[in-house]
């Protein structure tokens, strides 16, 4: 018997192992963070709990260190919370965005450098994370500064702290926590961009897409927090 609002075809596409494996990026603390081993909180977790309640299904949270890592291991999950990024549309179907986060830059440099555009200069190295939405944006928007890619936000921040890079890009709320732990770190006054966050499915799951689209149009509308 299918769950409420979830046809048998949609259930097979969405819950092949009897539960919905939801990938989350724990480097984006606004969306998901692990407050204790196996216990998560954040806007993505709130959305997962709403799906559990509305559809009476089990949702397993699958943590990843970055959005790029999620995309590199698509066999490990059934759905994911990801930044909406056009370059991902060749493999991902995005549901309606339910939240946004801001990305900015942080530095150990002088206070006279106050805006993100100041980092786009010859000889300036900016630590970014492979596969991140803000990295794709910076690749298009910045024409002078050098982007230095790392596999995780932690590694990118370490490169800036070690002065291998002049700036590090990241989610503003995550960089604010980083700055609290490292008082010499300073965030730019403005943002690189505002990034929509959405539930995402691998392409080729039309029944699951339709069920989730209908859920967002109805009961799920109140889950939109933006």
Describe the fold and architecture.
The chain is α/β, with parallel strands linked by helices and 226 residues long. It has seven helices and eleven strands. The protein has helices at residues 8-14, 43-55, 67-71, 133-141, 153-161, 172-181, 206-217; strands at residues 20-25, 33-36, 39-41, 59-64, 79-83, 92-107, 125-129, 146-150, 167-171, 186-187, 193-202. The longest helix has 13 residues, at 43-55.
What are the key terms here?
226 residues; alpha/beta; nine-stranded mixed beta sheet; two-stranded antiparallel sheet
Please report the number of helical segments: 7
What is the terminal separation in angstroms? 34 Å
β-strand number: 11
The proportion of residues forming helix, as a percent range, comes to 25-40%
| Contiguous uncertain segments of 5+ residues | none
Strand residue percentage: 25-35%
Instruction: Profile the largest sheet.
Output: 9 strands, mixed
Question: What is the N-to-C succession of helices and strands?
Answer: HEEEHEHEEEHEHEHEEH
Shape: elongated
